Amino acid sequence: MHLAALAYRLSGHLPSLRGLAASLVGVLIAPVAQAQPLPDLAGLAGHTVFGATVESHAVWSVYLGPDGRAQFTYASGGTAEATWRAADRNVLCFAFDDSGEETCKRGSAYGIGSGWSTVYPQSDGQWHPYQEDPHGSSRIFAAWPGRYSHDPASFTGDLRESFPGRAYIDLPGQGIYGVEIRPDGTGAILNDTGPRNTESAEYGARHMCIHGECLDLQISDGRLQLLKRDGDRFEGHVLYLAKGRFSPPAIPDEPAGHASAYDDGPAVIYPRDGSTQIIQPVDFDAWERPDAVRVDFKDGSPRIGGRVLVPVFRPDHATIVAVTKGYALIRFGGPDLPENCVEAYRWLWVTGPDHGQMTPPFGTCAETAKVDVTWQGGIILATITPDSGAPGTFRYFPGSKDMGEPLDVSLVSGDAADIPWMAEDDWKAIEAREAAERRAAEEARDALARKEAKAREERQRAARLDAARRTAEPFGRIAGGNLFDILAADSVRVAIGESSEGVLLTEFLQEQFTEATFLPENRQAGSTYIGAACGSAGCKELRLIAIYDAETDAVFGILTSGATNLAMFGALDWIDGKTVATGLDAVSNEIQREMAWQSRGER
């Protein structure tokens, strides 16, 4: 057997030495509204493609006619015509005259937009760019079906003249994303990842906000730069403001019936029976209406579909005073309110057949003479007029970027009472907590059982080792003797002393092998003998094998603990692998069986 093969055989049976071994686009909020990235350029026939140069952010557009004619419009107001063809899945080629020469552009993924790089064909069928920038000298930020003319100066100096609509923003190195402000008071960050969600939106002359997270606009080096408020983090450059371009309203139309319609938003229903109401939830993500559910009260706490939402909320009395969409305004009173607080209000958002969310209490704390509820775009305004004192108008945006957050109610004008309120768990949170407590208890029981089983196994293992332990001493002969007869040979003692850590190894063997838990008879193959022993703590902790030639006094030994070779002595080059292979296999198998018995009581 070759030396390397023998080393492999040793490593197979005796473990050998082991070596020891910025942000995303649209970072204002997460998750964000989803906007599909542009399709491949070849699929944009009949679309107007909008782009902006990297150097100056000058906006241009091209209409890709289905007839193969393209109409370019540049930031300067100039135009050009060309024929166009889809030369590849994401490559368009334009011919501006009859010379046969073409200018070819390739798209590349860039947020919800695309690159626009000049390329030329090679003989290998690949397209190679002219520019070093892989995305080219322009960025495509949108492609709309139909023919449109763009506004070369979409920013007039006041964002209020550009919204409601959509802002296309380039975050260099990250890609194009969008901020959409809708006329119903909602908005979204448009990104190529993440689920659709609805947020409250607000804007002014030089800022835009989604769910209270604001970007401030400033002009720097002739570019429209966005910085995150209260942090001055750069969030990109505004490339284009598309006034009037936005998704459908976040809140579907209210069906007719007993509703009193308002021009500026959906209707509000005032039920005659203030204790029970049929309410139809609104699924914002699916943009559909689930089946209507019954909302009533048990012990003052609202029930949805017959299930109490928040068991700890048990006021003395509660009444539904207004209903709209999936929302009910509840007036209540009871001991949980501060002293001298007669009554307060909470919005109940019905989100499913047996679940919803409630806002913290709000109001004036005085007895109410009248409540007026109106919509202002996508925001609900509740004006509470007390019998005496000034009314208070409260703003509620029906929706939240995080369904686990308390719903947001804020004072718009007038008086409001400070109503402290403890955190509450609804039935879902209670069941989740109880399930977590059960899992924790089960895990604790399992951990205790594992600990007890391990202790029991350790006691059994210790008993087996005690029974196997014997004095480590030679018999006085190699043939029919054991490992310690081999170690007693003069040439072996010399080999151990001449090893790299000879003195330490000698002392270690004398200290650690006063007793052995496994000490088989030496195996013989011709003049070669193979001996083995396990230390007093067991075969897993310490093993020693020695191969010795009685005619030449040559020896090789290896000391192993666990999966680590602690030391070796002697040499391997004298060993005839064919002669020792059978004996080495037999010794190794014996050690493995002994290790299994010592550890688990199995042979």
UniProtKB/TrEMBL annotation:
<feature type="coiled-coil region">
    <location>
        <begin position="434"/>
        <end position="468"/>
    </location>
</feature>
<keyword id="KW-0175">Coiled coil</keyword>
<protein>
    <submittedName>
        <fullName>Uncharacterized protein</fullName>
    </submittedName>
</protein>
